[in-house]
Amino acid sequence: MSSQTPTVASTESRHVGKEEILAARSVTMRFGGLVAVDNVDFTVHSGEIVGLIGPNGAGKTTFFNCLTGLYKPTSGEVRFSGQVLPPKPRSVVVAGMARTFQNIRLFPNMTALENVMVGRYCRTSAMALTSILRGPKYRREEEATRARAVELLDYVGMKGQGGHLARNLPYGDQRRLEIARALATDPKLLLLDEPTAGMNPQETRQAEELIFKIRDSGLAIVVIEHDMRFIFNLCDRVLCLVRGKTLIEGTAAEVQSDPRVIEAYIGSPDSDDEASGSDVATEGEAGNA
Amino acid sequence: MNVPTIVTPELQKRFHVPGRIAALAGGLLLAASAYLPWAYDGDALDNMAFLGGPSTLQFLGALLGLLLAVSAGMAWVEPWADRKGILPRLLMVSRRAGWTRGTKALGVGLLGFIAVVLIAIALELGGLVTIEYGGWVALAGALLGFVGSRLLTPGRAPSLEKVKTPAWLEIVSIAVLLLVALLLAAYALNQNDGGTFLSILAFIGALVAFILRVGAGGWLSAAGQRHRNVLVFSSFAVAFLFPFTQNGSDANMSIATQVLIFAATAVGLNIVVGLAGLLDLGYIAFLGAGAFTAATMSQSAFATIGWKPPFIVVMLIAGLVSATLGLIIGSPTLRVSGDYLAIVTLAFGEIFRISMSNLDGSDGPDLVHGSSGIPAIPNLNLFGFDFGKVHTVLGIPLGRFSNYFFLMLLIMALIVLVFTRLNHSRIGRGWVAIREDEKAAEAMGVNVFGLKLLAFAGGAFLAGLAGAVKAHVDQSVTPDQYIFLESAFLLAAVVLGGMGTVMGVLLGAALLKLVPEKLRFVNEYRMLIFGLLMVLMMRFRPEGMIPNQRRVLEFHSDDEELVEEIEEDLPYEFAEEH
């Protein structure tokens, strides 16, 4: 097992880790005449949770896709651990960046365990001939894959659920399974696209605990969310995008109290007198609807 | 399936007991009718004109009748299970069987069997008048049994697979079942009369339907899972024994060898279609590439390449040539989505055939003598074993086709090994992930393009191996053996048989090749019949006859009940423990 496994808890990494993991420099993404992401700078340090917020259509997911190699930015560059990655989702995963999807994209007709085992694909190496001959090395690797997948299911709180088909799992478990599958790729950076969308408050709290647990094990995390309470509870730093541009970047408290954020969400430039923290949270959710 | 309900649940509730009596009586009546003459003349089928002496087919009919009677009557015997003794203990097991479901399936199968037999008699002798009273009694019995079984309320679902049985019993059952299959296959193949052949098929169909619905199929497959090696080994042993049942006759062995080549190619195609989910409409070209490669390097006087390495080397080269073609076709097209691939492979199949016709010395280099191809390919001689000679083993002569049959069996074993091992491996998981959600698979680090290319080139390699043998079996290789129709038939074998399973494709390939060989009238209308068959399959059972569980899920994702059922008895590779 490699050393960045989330089960190996390294609590000090949060304080020590000021190493830059992800650095996006003036990333711009154009679709024809539409500028979906406009000149955005973005940095993530190891062991920190960064939130990405913004009203619908602000370009959050597009920016995410630029980071994870689904799109190639029109201009600007994305460096991961100091290196520019080729815009291929697979190389991005191999380099150590894993993601979940806004609308869950599990492999529905595979069991939970198999879903996680697919995540191990890029960290295992058995090719056709090895798989056919089934030597001791192959068996060891297959055994390790299975054991790791079982371990990860336990880790996200799905102990004993491995035999169920992904499609038959309850919604919250599907979200958790997606995280387990992403963790199976041994990432250094985890990108979560709306991990609590559609969850009830209890499930949201569980998700929050899980994300903290993952962060405490030394991974850096980027979260897109609409649930402001969730974001401000969770994140060390928050980046707010509006119409593809950076509106503000700062600590949760700074962003929370910034009138422009509230303005962006509820779109009324005059009434900034009621901008207290709890209002932002509720109004943020309303803006989501 | 939206078949209109004639027999409503209320009707079934009210006539349950009379239905059971009717099914029992019908079965017994049918069994008794075997001792009556069914036809006026002995020429029809296998001579059913005797009073008091059942022919084989009549005997089989009687067997089905008795089975129906027993199955229908079980409900009255089962209460005895509460007593003590050995018999009640067996009855406890019987309580796990789905006798009512079996009775219903057998009611349909029996009617089908009798209908086929009677229609065959009428066609062969000229009119319904040639059917003797025994035949009508049999029909009455079958109808009674059918109507009676329809009136039964659907019983409990079978759970025989949960019965704990001693290992020896399971192993013996597997062996016996395979031996029975061998004898039935040998018997069916020896029938040159179309009606008899079709009747035997109907019998097998009815029997298999009964076994599956009663739940013995579940028990057998569970037993097969537990004794996988026994199952695989005895399957090949039985196939190996097949030539010994033929008494040196080459007629059937020639068909059997062709079936085996076809089936091996189809299993190779199933890696591409069933496992990786790529639609390949030009797969026959890879078989052809192997055959042409082997032919040009053979000992034939018309072979164009002077280098004549031993056959093992030739086979490898043939496979590599096919695989290279696969890479050349695959690497530009596998990056685009499915429909384009289908069209490109379709075109590739045609390009291959036309190119071969043009390599005749006037339009291109004289590599394969154009459309006349390479004839007079001599028989193989491997390590001093002459494939052209008749070898006598244990007093049973084994002719030329038997020799090739054995060779193809080896290649089949290799292909099946590759298929199953890849299926249950890291690579197999990757393929499933790609089929399920290509984008997500890519985003999880699965090498989508590489895995597709592997399936494509690997499948081509295996087809190349089979092609090299085919060149020697056919003794000549011409471009018109490798037309699009053959690709279509290979694909039909995969789709009808079951995507993603070996057994399904073997069954599909055997049916598609055997039925036209044995039934001349089918051969004439085979396009029509297969077209119809495909439409019906797509409508009622798109996953094929013996499908992969996962494929069933993919095709029936909205059927919640079925999904639950499958999840409950997921085979071992899905489960967490192993």
Can you offer a commentary on this structure?
The complex is a heterodimer of chains A (289) and B (578). Chain A folds into two domains: 1-96 and 188-289, P-loop containing nucleotide triphosphate hydrolases (Rossmann fold, 3-Layer(aba) Sandwich), CATH 3.40.50; 107-185, no CATH class. In chain A, helix 4 packs across helix 6 (136-155), helix 4 runs parallel beside helix 7 (171-183) and helix 6 (136-155) packs across helix 7. The longest helix of chain A has 20 residues, at 136-155. Chain A has 289 residues and is an alpha/beta fold. Chain A is 39% helix and 22% strand. Chain B has helices at 9-14, 16-33, 56-77, 86-94, 99-125, 133-150, 167-190, 194-214, 216-226, 228-241, 250-275, 284-296, 311-333, 338-358, 400-423, 426-436, 438-443, 448-474, 484-497, 502-518, 520-524, 526-540, 549-555, 560-568, and strands at residues 381-382, 385-386, 391-393, 396-398. Chain B has 578 residues and is mostly helical. In chain B, strand 3 (391-393) and strand 4 form a beta hairpin. In chain B, helix 7 (167-190) runs parallel beside helix 10, helix 11 packs across helix 20 (502-518) and helix 19 crosses helix 20 (502-518). Chain B folds into two domains: 9-239, no CATH class; 249-496, ABC transporter involved in vitamin B12 uptake, BtuC (Orthogonal Bundle), CATH 1.10.3470. The A-B interface holds A 68, 70, 89-90, 93-94, 98-99, 101, 105-111, 113-114, 117-119, 121-124, 126-128, 131-132, 134, 138, 141-142, 145, 150, 160, 162-165, 167-168, 181-182, 185 and B 417-418, 421-422, 425-430, 432-433, 436-437, 439-448, 454, 458, 550, 553-554, 557, 563-564, 567, 570, 574-576.
